[in-house]
Specification:
Structural class: alpha/beta
CATH class of the largest domain: Alpha Beta
Helix content: 40-55%
Radius of gyration: 22 Å
Oligomer: single chain
Largest sheet: 5 strands, parallel
Shape: globular
Number of domains: 2
CATH topology of the largest domain: Rossmann fold
Length: 475
């Protein structure tokens, strides 16, 4: 029997970062970078993680001193690493006061977030705060919040009242202009609570945009046995990740709150926009496209999907003919070379990144991953048959039944509504029109342009199947 994993002897990092949404991605990405920065340059940058929805992560990590294994999955083998930068985990639903107290503590210099697109309680089509969201309605009424924006606003309110500077808000989610989005929802919510607070946040606060990139598949029960065999310890909460990583951050921090991440390879830049577009559209856009179409074709993972030459050719088509023409490369970057690296990452047989996992929450992801590129191509007179097919595949998928009549477990904040729209439609055209009428996803003007090509693509999927459809696009 392997020994239970525990924190090694020695000093524990002093907390300086609170992270909202302590899921697998941040533990395999940001927490590793922060640990390396402290090992290289020192500083008090220990991480207090916050679970906003469930105590599960807290319950797994606390008994082992909040340390865990990050297992790098390379084509030639797996490499474990002990991560010690997380020093505590709080479960917000059980004790919101403890979370606010930690965020308001003068020692907290950064509050970072990985709460997924839906966690910002915004309208994906506009980026504005969704005032009808039930958690926002709650947070406008009660001082102990539920939402990520609510925690940010109430903690900043406490800091203002105490005469403290704000913390830097560092979002690590895949949103276009993610810093501006979180700034907008925070200021908007604050203005409805206290206009003077909103003005203080708008002037003194800092919300640098970021681009984050590392594939982190979900940890499966059998992975715990693999980690135990490699390390000799029983880790209840390991994370898995690919070798590749990239973190680009706009160098715009509240004075005194900038960790030495640049010392360990994080790119500090003036403007992250070009990097963000490159990643969101080239990686996330093709990831989502392959997830929906690959899942409908019966493939469990992205690696399985691109092992099929038809889908690999489809991905290359998307990059070459539809996505790269709509992008401006970041300084010093080759988009063609980046596409080649992406395909190699997708092909890594050690990364079992499930198509179903990537397909989740598509209503929140489509605007930034696919619709923006489609719209820009359309305005420039360029056609986007591959992205059109991906949009149609999403519509089939959220309808809850695959192309062979099997039920799909759809996980999406709009899932019941989307399923109802699909069920009510009598024809392919009816179903597509109903989906395009969901204004939280589709701008009405864009929906009008999408209607005919998406209806045709939807019909092709239904009549010929996913593999034949992607072959037709990529031929």
């Amino acid at each position: 029997m392997p020994a239970r994993l525990t924190r090694p002897d020695g000093p524990v990092p002093t907390p300086g970062i609170v992270h909202l949404g302590l899921g697998a991605f941040f533990r395999a990405f940001g927490a590793v970078w922060v640990q390396e920065a402290m090992e290289t340059a020192g500083g008090d940058w220990g991480i207090v993680g916050v679970s906003l929805q469930s105590p599960t992560t807290r319950d797994l990590l606390k008994p082992q001193g909040c340390v865990y294994t990050a297992l790098e999955l390379g084509p030639q083998g797996s490499t474990p690493r002990l991560v010690t930068s997380v020093v505590d985990v709080l479960a917000a639903p059980e004790d919101p006061e403890a979370v606010l107290a930690r965020m308001a503590d003068p020692a907290t210099k950064i509050v970072s977030l990985t709460v997924t697109e839906k966690g910002y309680c915004h309208d994906p089509a506009t980026g504005r705060l969704n005032l009808d969201h039930p958690d926002i309605q709650h947070d406008l009424t009660y001082p102990l919040p539920r939402s990520a924006p609510g925690y940010l606003v109430r903690a900043l309110q406490r800091r203002q009242a105490a005469g403290l500077p704000p913390f830097t808000v560092l979002t690590c989610d895949n949103l276009p202009r993610n810093g501006a989005v979180v700034r907008g929802v925070v200021v908007d919510l604050a203005r409805r609570i206290d206009p003077a607070l909103a003005n203080w946040i708008a002037v003194e606060g800092r919300f640098p945009a970021t681009m984050v990139d590392r594939i982190v598949p979900a940890t499966k029960p059998e992975d715990l046995a693999t980690v135990a065999d490699l390390t000799g310890t029983a880790d209840r909460a390991p994370v898995l990740h690919e070798p590749f990583r990239q973190w680009v951050i706009e160098d715009d921090f509240v004075p005194g709150t900038r960790p030495p991440l640049d010392r360990v390879g994080v790119q500090m830049v003036t403007d992250v926009t070009a990097f963000e577009h490159m990643k969101l559209r080239m990686l996330n856009g093709t990831h989502s496209s392959l997830a929906y179409l690959g899942n409908l074709a019966g493939y469990e993972t992205i690696a399985d999907t691109v092992a099929d030459s038809a889908f690999a050719a489809f991905a290359r088509h998307l990059w070459r003919n539809e996505i790269i023409p709509a992008l401006t490369p970041p300084p010093g970057e080759s988009l063609t070379a980046y596409a080649a690296v992406l395909l190699k990452r997708y092909e890594n047989p050690a990364i079992r990144h499930r198509t179903w996992q990537i397909a989740m929450d598509g209503s929140q992801k489509l605007p930034q991953r696919i619709l923006g590129t489609w719209s820009e191509n359309n305005a420039a007179g360029r056609v986007s048959p591959g992205l059109t097919l991906a949009i149609a595949a999403w519509m089939v998928w959220v309808g809850g039944t695959d192309l062979n009549g099997r039920q799909i477990e759809v996980k999406d904040p709009l899932a019941p509504r989307l399923r109802a729209l699909s069920d009510l439609g009598q024809t392919n055209a009816d179903k597509v029109a109903a989906f395009l009428g969901v204004t939280e996803i589709f701008d009405p003007a864009l929906a009008a342009d999408l209607r005919d090509p998406v209806t045709a693509a939807y019909a092709t999927l239904k009549s010929r199947g996913a593999r034949a459809a992607v072959q037709e696009v990529a031929r």
